[in-house]
Design goal:
There is one protein chain. This protein is an alpha/beta fold. Helix content is 38%, strand content 12%. A seven-stranded parallel sheet has the order 3-2-1-4-5-6-7, sandwiched between helices. Strand 4, helix 4 and strand 5 form a beta-alpha-beta unit.
Length: 289
């Protein structure tokens, strides 16, 4: 029997339905590192959309490790993943983690979720706009109006709605961090609508940073490359999943914990002179912009 080349085939073939659940993945993503926290976010209150799993879970855990209380927003179908994240943060790091079930593709749900979190925290220091959906389609003629509107509603419109809901409770020194993607810079033939939303997030980040700079609120973004998250088995065919991430210079996908430190940096005083910028965490792919 021929030995499998681990650089080419890392994961077994697998598939899920959307939204994708972390507890069903094989292997499950690595969301926490062995590094100890250093108190960079003590006393801070944060919100992370899509915080139940994937990059969002890793960011929630990293924030808690640094001393922040966390609220995570997730879909009802993701409750099992969300419950795990809440328990992990409370048990391991002793921080508050508020789970809020909401479909942020509607402005009403964004306002309701925000009101609940603000009522609990009394303030918000960090907003991470991270939730996203992708619906691969290799032919633009096959992208339906319903899927196009849904992708934009979840990926970019929700960032406007969440920001509008939370901004009145943010003070000078607060920050907003948006999750964009490497596809915003190089495009993706099979993810035209998704890539378009991620490009919009880059422009949103830069424009909002200019708009809020006089208020002392910083706005930045992170652009991950191929990271092993529930979206991958939930949206790509099993053959793609098996070789996911092996086409970047490092020849392997990243794990969520490898992205999370970028968010910690952007949320902390370490980045107090940084706004309107994007950090690229993508396994060595060089992109313009």
């Amino acid at each position: 029997m021929q030995k499998t080349n681990p650089k080419k085939e890392i994961f077994r073939k697998q598939s899920q339905s959307l939204p994708g659940l972390e507890y069903k993945m094989d292997p499950r993503p690595d969301f926490d590192s062995d590094a100890a926290g250093s108190g960079k976010l003590v006393g801070k209150c944060s919100i992370i959309t899509g915080g139940d799993s994937g990059i969002g879970r890793a960011v929630a855990v990293a924030f808690a490790k640094e001393g922040a209380d966390v609220a995570i927003i997730y879909l009802p179908e993701e409750k099992k993943d969300a419950d795990f994240t809440v328990k992990y943060i409370k048990d391991k790091y002793g921080k508050q983690c508020i789970p809020v079930s909401a479909d942020i593709s509607s402005p009403e749900n964004c306002r309701t979720a925000s009101d609940r979190i603000v009522e609990s925290f009394g303030k918000v220091d960090i907003l991470v706009n991270n939730a996203a959906v992708q619906l691969p389609e290799d032919d633009i003629l096959k992208i339906t109006p319903e899927n196009l509107i849904h992708t934009f509603s979840v990926n970019i419109f929700s960032m406007f709605w969440m920001t509008q809901s939370i901004l009145p409770y943010m003070k000078s020194g607060s920050c907003i961090i948006n999750t964009t993607s490497v596809t915003a810079y190089r495009g993706s033939a099979g993810l035209i609508d998704y890539s378009s939303t991620k490009g919009a997030i880059v422009s949103f980040t830069r424009s909002l940073s200019s708009n809020l700079i006089e208020k002392g609120i910083r706005v930045n973004a992170v652009a991950p490359g191929p990271i092993w998250t529930p979206l991958i088995p939930a949206t790509f065919p099993p053959e793609h999943v098996q070789k996911f991430g092996t086409d970047v210079p490092m020849k392997k996908p990243g794990q969520p914990w490898q992205v999370a430190p970028s968010y910690v940096f952007l949320a902390s005083e370490d980045s107090s002179y940084v706004t309107g910028q994007v950090i690229h965490v993508n396994g060595g792919e060089i992109v313009n912009g």
